Amino acid sequence: MEQNTIRRRGVGLTGIDKKLSFGGYTLFAPLTSDIAHLIDNDGKEVHRWKLPSRVGRHVRILPNGTLAANTVHPDTGEVFPFLHKYGGGLMSELDPNGNVVRQFGDPLGHHDQYHFGDGRILYTSLEALSKEDSAKVQGGVAGSEIDGITYTDIIKEVDAEGNVQWEWAVSKRLPRDEYPLQPHYTREHYPLINSVIPLKDGNILASMRSVSSVVVIEKSTGDIIWRLASDVVGQQHCATELENGNFLIFDNGCFREGESNTYTRVIEVDRETKRVVWEYKDKSQWNCFFTPFMGSAQRLANGNTFICESAFGRTFEVTRDGTICWEYVNPYFAEYPDATTRSLFPGESNALFRAYRYSKEEIPWLT
C-alpha cells in the first residue's frame, strides 16, 4: 500500500470544467528539485527548464519571455537551519532553452524576488542584529535566537549591474513595539518578509509572516503608510495588487486571532477601507483547504482566481463564486537533497512555494 498520503490520494490532473476554467498553461517548480515545469490545461507537460540549482522558492515567466528563477545560492552557509529551506539568493533569467541570460547573487537572499525584466530586481535579504539589538525584538519564543542573534530583513532593489539603488532595513524602520513577533514564533528571523512587489504608484507592498502584517512602504520616505494586521490575517503570504487597486492575499490562517480551528482562505481587501470584499474558503469543509506555510493566489483575466496550496503541492482554480473548475496535484515527489532541510522536513515532498497561470498569448515562443 502506498505510504505517502498525498500520492495515495491522487496526483496530476484531478478535475477540470473547461467551460469555467481560464485555460492556458500552469508553471510550477517543486521545492526538492532543480526543474521547472510548464503544463497545459489537460495536465500534460509542454515545456521544462533545468535550473542553475535547487529551487529556492519559485519561478515566473516574464513579459520578455525569459524565466525568472529563484534558486539556492551555493555560498549561503550555515546562517540558521531554515534558511536552507527558504533561501533563494541565486536570481537568474533563463531563455526558453534554459540558457542563463542574466544572473545576480546574494547568499542571504530569501523568499521573494521581483524581476522587472530589464535587469533590476526587488528582493528580500537578511542582516544580523547585535545581541543587544536582538534582545529588543519583542515577542516570540524566548531563547530561540541563533547564539543570541536575531536576523532581520532588508528589502533591496538592484540595477542590472547588481548595484543597490534602494533599500529598506527592518533594523532601522520597523517599530519593535508595534510589530512584535507572535508568541509561538522563533526569534531567529524577524519579521520574515515572504513577498515584496512594486505597486502601480511606485510604493512597495510587503507581507511580514511572523508578525502577521501586510504593509505598504512609501518608497520616497521609507515610511509605512498602510497596514493590515493580525486581526485580519494569520501568517499570510503572496500579497499582490489587483487591477482595481485592491490587494489579493493568501491568508494561511495559522494562529488566527479569535479562532481555535485552522483554515486557509484567499481574500481581496479594499485598500481604502481595509474591508474584505471577496473571500474564498473551501465550500465542502472549511478545513479541507489549509497549508500552514507558503501559498499563492493569482487573479486571472476572466475573474477566476488561481491558488497554490503549497505544502501539499495542490494547485486549483476557482470562479468568483468559489466553484472549483480545475485542480492539479504536483506528481513529483522527492526528499530534500541537503541534510539540514531534510532534517526539518523529512520524507518525500511535492511541496511548491507558488504556481502561476499564463494565457497562450503570454507565451508566444511556445509551439
Describe the protein's architecture and organization.
With 367 residues, this protein is mainly beta. Helices cover 7% and strands 38% of the residues. It is built from 5 helices and 26 strands. It is globular and about 55 Å long. The mean pLDDT is 96.
SSE layout:
Elements: H1 5-9, E1 12-16, E2 25-28, E3 35-39, E4 45-50, E5 55-61, E6 67-71, H2 81-86, E7 90-94, E8 100-105, E9 110-115, E10 121-128, H3 131-134, E11 151-158, E12 164-169, H4 170-173, E13 189-190, E14 193-198, E15 204-208, E16 213-217, E17 224-228, E18 237-241, E19 247-251, E20 265-269, E21 276-280, E22 296-299, E23 305-309, E24 314-318, E25 324-329, H5 339-344, E26 355-358
Parallel strand pairs: 11-13
Antiparallel strand pairs: 1-25, 2-3, 2-26, 3-4, 5-6, 6-7, 7-8, 9-10, 10-11, 11-12, 14-15, 15-16, 16-17, 18-19, 19-20, 20-21, 22-23, 23-24, 24-25
SS-based class:
mainly beta
Helical percentage? under 10%
Principal-axis shape equals: globular
Strand content: 35-45%
Radius of gyration: 19 Å
Low-confidence stretches at least 5 residues in length (pLDDT < 50)?
none
How many H/I helices?
Answer: 5
Mean pLDDT across all amino acids: 96
Distance between the termini: 40 Å
The number of E-state strands comes to 26
Major sheet characteristics = 5 strands, antiparallel
The strands making up the biggest β-sheet line up spatially as 1-25-24-23-22
Quick recap of the structure?
The protein has 367 residues and is mostly beta strands.
Primary descriptors:
single chain, 367 residues, mainly beta, five-stranded antiparallel sheet, five-stranded mixed sheet, 26 strands, 38% strand, globular
